Amino acid sequence: MATDETSVENTSVLLSLWNVALKVLNFGNHILLFTLAGYLIYISWGTGVWSLHVLLCSVGYVLLMGEGIVVLAGENLWSGFLSRRVNSHIHWVLLLVGSVFSIVGTAYGYHGNALRNRPHFSSTHGLTGIISVGLVIIAAVLGLPALFAGKLRNIIKPIINKFSHNLLGTASFVVGMVSQCYGYNTGFMRRLSPEIPRDWHTSRSQRSSPPTSESSPR
After folding, report:
1. Cα separation values, 163 from 80, 93, 169, 171, Å
2. Euclidean distance between CA atoms 85 and 94, whole angstroms
3. How far apart are CA 93 and CA 101, in angstroms?
4. Of 42, 117, 174, 186, which has the fewest beta carbons less than 10 angstroms from its beta carbon?
5. Of the candidates 146, 135, 121, which has an alpha carbon nearest to the alpha carbon of residue 177?
6. Whether pLDDT at 216 is above 70
7. In the chain, where the domains are located
8. In this predicted model, which residue has the larger pLDDT, 5 or 26?
9. pLDDT mean over 100-123
10. Radius of gyration of the chain (CA)
11. Closest C-alpha to 135, from 176, 193, 94, 194
């Protein structure tokens, strides 16, 4: 009996430590999301085509989608005390608004290239960006039946419905963040943020021609 009680106590301690670790990671995640989004908003604030592209996609992907995903986690600091139903509603609202921001931001990027007669989606940043937008749209379409999975159980199994939505939603976010990372190394972002390392070719081209705040991010 003593051995069983000790085992139960050890398991309880491990679970408590695990929950604490998850909350610490969750807190760190919020700090990273808000810091990154805040910095991108600060350096890209403006009404030009590329400023709006960076601003909308950063807020859409990094902040709204990032927060919309973790809101469903039981360890989430600002929503863990809410009911599952309330968190589900917060989830789809944040994801929907984030998707709209990202799609409109991508449209501004397309428009920026069109103004300069440059090829669309020819870079890794642009290609992963448009793939992510496509996945976002599909995930959003599948999100509606996933929201009413219980009522549609006679038409499609809830587990299949939710699995498809979760899989595509996760894929769209991951690919979108890959596009974000490649976007941080574009010429437009390097001109906005002096902290981003510049390669020799970029530095040379900038010495020969003065930078403009609304140049293409290529």
Report:
1. 22, 19, 10, 12
2. 14
3. 12
4. 117
5. 135
6. no
7. 31-208
8. 26
9. 92
10. 21
11. 176
Rounded-to-integer distance, Cα 119 and Cα 127, Å: 11
pLDDT at 209 over 80: no
Residue at 135: amino acid letter:
L
Averaged over 157-186, what is the pLDDT? 91
Global model pTM greater than 0.90? no
- Quickly tell me which residue has 């960006």 as its tokens: 129
HSE at residue 217, side-chain half, CA atoms within 13 A, is 32
Please state which CATH number belongs to domain 31-208. Answer: 1.20.120.1770
Q: Which of 64-73, 117-126, 167-176, 182-191 has the weakest average pLDDT? A: 182-191
How is residue 36 written in tokens?
């990154």
**CA quadruple 149, 150, 154, 160: dihedral positive or negative?**
positive
Contact (Cβ atoms closer than 8 angstroms) between residue 94 and residue 71: yes
28 by DSSP, 3-state: which?
helix
Going by C-alpha positions, the residue among 76, 92, 97 that lies closest to residue 162 is 92
Encoding tokens for residue 216?
A: 């293409």
DSSP secondary structure, 53-103, as one string:
HHHHHIIIIIIIIHHHHHTTSTT-TTTTTS-HHHHHHHHHHHHHHHHHHHH
